Amino acid sequence: MSVKKIFLAVFLLISFLNWSQNKKFKVVLDAGHGGKDYGATYHGNIEKNIALKTALKVGEILKNEHDIEVVYTRNTDVFVELDERANIANKSKGHLFISMHCNANPNQAAAGNETYVMGITKSASNLEVAKKENAVVTLESNYKVKYDGFDPKKPESVIGISILQEENLQQSIEIAGKVQQAFTKFTPNKSRGVKQAGFLVLRKIAMPRILIEMGFVSNKNEGAFLNSEEGQLKLAQAIATAIVNYKKDYFHSESNLPKKQEVSKEEDKKDTPKKEDDKANVTSSSKEDIFFKIQISASAKKIETVPTNFKGLKSISVQKEKSIYKYFYGQTSDYKKAKQLLEEAKAKGYTSSFIVAIQNGKQISIKDAIK
Hints:
By secondary structure, this protein is α/β, with parallel strands linked by helices.
């Protein structure tokens, strides 16, 4: 065999190995707190320990999926600064960031799980959760410089955290909804739904990202569940199931995947029935039609689509996807007009709103819509 042929064979082998590695769906698991930061502690239940044990269990379950790769921000009891968690996630070029925590409340009757996406909130309870989780920065040296004068005790600091990578908000809401659905299936605990708040750990993550409050360590019964091997396994099964289901729905369509990873026609036909419910909510006059809407919010509650409920905006439509109601402003086939509608929505205070493109009753990427 000639030297040229040997070189070509080696090159093809390396390319194949790189492709095999890159085709995997990469999940970043972030166990909250750690080391000198204990998180919430009640009745002998320590948040940092519960978060780590559950995160490791999620990782073990996901190892059974041949096309999923797991990255941990910590896999031992160490203190990791919030910015470093973001650095680990972004350097890994992950597809999903899952931060795991436990809640606490002086009212020890409070119970249930909830999942947060990055966003602005004026809800007092959401602000309190964010303030509690963000307080970890005070354990970091020079935190006021590093985090632009951030003060975890001030609500305005929480509200003022800039929302980066807002194009990932919708997918963050999707995985958050799947987590809450899975919790209902795998655990006996109350679902408190999907919420928005400003968390420092999420602010620099360049991928869909959520923060899960798995339950209240301050509640004696729920705290015992969180601190038990059985409870952690059920929580891990729920979170892992949500991740796998999310991957099935979204990974094949990501633009950074090699063409060999694309779904075959027969597989696509198998998946099609899952999307039937979506078609009932969006109309299209022909298969070739593409139109744009502005997604302004998402909620676990159904809200009447009248202007008074949406800061005066008219032409509001709603689409239900499983347990989440998505609210849209306007509709146009002109992308330039869609950008104008986006500015109108932002001017009304919907600063994290974004454009979505619809073709034949299915959402497609903006890139595909305007090419």
